């Protein structure tokens, strides 16, 4: 059976392929080979720049351009060639080394230094830097721009609903009002913190040989400062050099990166559930799309499927990432292979997040606030004004203020007339009575509207 979006086992490459297609340029097997080829070529260029290693062999600028050309023209035919070599070697990085040696054999000058390909390297010197560049590109090109889109639309919602009074629900029960804008602002602020944190996470890499000590390098060229050379090389890739490792870069930064993503995702799950609830309460309408069907048997339904889809995919992403957070920083002694298959699934974990981000953006685009329902719900809950009334009573030294409000409001149907009659009976200045009577469930919103203006 030919692999298509219909025959793919994973919905990432099947049902949701249109949302994850850009990730193929980063996390596919082809792309992984391309990233690793980049590291091998850049390392060979670094070696060429060290005159002591060339033994008077002259490498011209055109030879270096030829190396660059190998990378720039890398295609699926080349990738297949590497995989065919791997069938014999049973080793992916050795297959890549042989492929590159074969490519440079067409250049007389480069052929003379072919044994400097993969010089001093263990496979993980190549792999860890390839993964570092993959994750850097995923973060900078895919994840952060999507987070920015989500943040921008939440910020717009914050100001759009700045004055939309909302009955709060603590423990699912009527509570002190807020505004819809302020409630969206809460999520915006939380997600913005993770966005800033994500930007600042260092992506690390190493290039120090079999157990991190430059043993082979120094055996061949004891007078060269490999410590500085490899540090400069790693930093030149846009990656932060990690000078202290075993055979593998210990993946702590991946755990940090995924920890940030999972927290952002958890906040977004919280958002999805709140919006889902507000839709259920009819605080939000969802725009009708004529050809869409909510239920196969109930024609009236418009389900909040985008928020549900987002929540489900965020859960899948977090489950995978949490395993990676716990697994990847652990390796037996100087190296074991249990991280290898896990690392090959980082694209899968990220893909579920990307699907979720697209879903929540689609869901938000369909929302229309129901101001009439918001105000009606508030008007049905005059008992929430027991809070400001008893607080003012305390100000004037009236004893048992809380208990008095509890007696007339708890578990009872309260309306404007009952509240105003109670206020009139209070032994407080007339001016204070008037001020309390001007408080309604819809305008008892504290600073919720004003503090939004301080959002950055």
UniProtKB/TrEMBL annotation:
Give the GO cellular component terms, alphabetically: cytosol
**UniProt GO MF annotations:** (S)-2-(5-amino-1-(5-phospho-D-ribosyl)imidazole-4-carboxamido) succinate lyase (fumarate-forming) activity; N6-(1,2-dicarboxyethyl)AMP AMP-lyase (fumarate-forming) activity
Q: Which residues form the Fumarate lyase N-terminal domain?
A: 14-312
User: Where is each Adenylosuccinate lyase PurB C-terminal domain found?
Assistant: 331-445
One record GO biological process = 'de novo' IMP biosynthetic process
Name the EC number(s): 4.3.2.2
Show the catalytic activity: N(6)-(1,2-dicarboxyethyl)-AMP = fumarate + AMP; (2S)-2-[5-amino-1-(5-phospho-beta-D-ribosyl)imidazole-4-carboxamido]succinate = 5-amino-1-(5-phospho-beta-D-ribosyl)imidazole-4-carboxamide + fumarate
Task: Note the superkingdom of the native organism.
Answer: Bacteria
Pfam family of this protein, just one? Answer: ASL_C
Keywords of the record, alphabetical order, are: Lyase, Purine biosynthesis
User: Hey, which pathway is this one from?
Assistant: Purine metabolism; AMP biosynthesis via de novo pathway; AMP from IMP: step 2/2; Purine metabolism; IMP biosynthesis via de novo pathway; 5-amino-1-(5-phospho-D-ribosyl)imidazole-4-carboxamide from 5-amino-1-(5-phospho-D-ribosyl)imidazole-4-carboxylate: step 2/2
Q: How does it assemble?
A: Homotetramer. Residues from neighboring subunits contribute catalytic and substrate-binding residues to each active site.
The record's function comment reads: Catalyzes two reactions in de novo purine nucleotide biosynthesis. Catalyzes the breakdown of 5-aminoimidazole- (N-succinylocarboxamide) ribotide (SAICAR or 2-[5-amino-1-(5-phospho-beta-D-ribosyl)imidazole-4-carboxamido]succinate) to 5-aminoimidazole-4-carboxamide ribotide (AICAR or 5-amino-1-(5-phospho-beta-D-ribosyl)imidazole-4-carboxamide) and fumarate, and of adenylosuccinate (ADS or N(6)-(1,2-dicarboxyethyl)-AMP) to adenosine monophosphate (AMP) and fumarate.
**Which family does the UniProt entry place this protein in?**
Belongs to the lyase 1 family. Adenylosuccinate lyase subfamily.
Q: Which NCBIfam families match?
A: PRK09285.1 (NF006764), purB (TIGR00928)
This protein's name = Adenylosuccinate lyase
């Amino acid at each position: 059976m030919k692999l298509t979006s219909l025959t793919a086992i994973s919905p990432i490459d099947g049902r949701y392929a249109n949302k994850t297609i850009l990730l193929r340029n980063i996390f596919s097997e082809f792309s992984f080979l391309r990233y690793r080829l980049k590291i091998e070529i850049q390392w060979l260029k670094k070696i060429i720049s060290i005159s002591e290693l060339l033994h008077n062999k002259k490498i011209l600028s055109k030879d270096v351009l030829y190396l660059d050309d190998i990378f720039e023209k890398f295609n699926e035919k080349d990738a297949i060639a590497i995989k065919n070599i791997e069938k014999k070697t049973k080793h992916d990085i050795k297959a890549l080394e042989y492929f590159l040696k074969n490519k440079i054999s067409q250049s007389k000058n480069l052929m003379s230094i072919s044994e400097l390909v993969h010089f001093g390297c263990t496979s993980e010197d190549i792999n860890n830097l390839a993964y570092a560049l993959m994750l850097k590109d995923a973060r900078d090109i895919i994840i952060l721009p999507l987070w920015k889109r989500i943040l921008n639309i939440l910020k717009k919602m914050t100001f759009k609903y700045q004055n939309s009074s909302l009955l709060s629900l603590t423990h699912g029960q009527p509570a002190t009002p807020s505004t819809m804008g302020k409630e969206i602002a809460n999520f915006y602020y939380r997600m913005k913190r993770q966005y800033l944190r994500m930007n600042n996470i260092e992506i690390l890499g190493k290039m120090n040989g079999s157990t991190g000590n430059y043993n082979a390098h120094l055996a061949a060229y004891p007078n060269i400062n490999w410590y500085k050379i490899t540090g400069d090389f790693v930093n030149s890739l846009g990656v932060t050099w990690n000078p202290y490792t075993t055979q593998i870069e210990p993946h702590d930064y991946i755990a940090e990166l995924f920890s940030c993503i999972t927290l952002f995702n958890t906040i977004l799950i919280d958002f999805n559930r709140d919006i889902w609830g507000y839709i259920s309460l009819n605080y939000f309408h969802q725009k009708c799309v004529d050809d869409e069907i909510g239920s196969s048997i109930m024609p009236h339904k418009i389900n909040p499927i985008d928020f549900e889809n987002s929540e489900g995919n965020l859960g899948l992403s977090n489950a995978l990432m949490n395993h990676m957070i716990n697994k990847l920083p652990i390796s037996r002694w100087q190296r074991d292979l249990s991280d290898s298959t896990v690392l090959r699934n980082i694209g899968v974990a990220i893909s579920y997040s990307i699907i979720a981000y697209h879903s929540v953006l689609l869901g938000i685009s369909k929302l229309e606030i129901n101001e009439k329902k918001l105000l009606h719900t508030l008007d049905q809950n005059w008992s929430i004004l027991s809070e400001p009334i008893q607080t003012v009573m305390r100000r004037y030294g009236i004893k048992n203020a809380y208990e008095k409000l509890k007696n007339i409001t708890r578990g009872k149907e309260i309306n404007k007339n009952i509240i105003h009659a109670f206020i009139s009976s209070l032994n407080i200045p007339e001016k204070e009575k008037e001020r309390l009577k001007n408080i309604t469930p819809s305008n008892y919103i504290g600073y919720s509207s004003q503090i939004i203006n301080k959002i950055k």
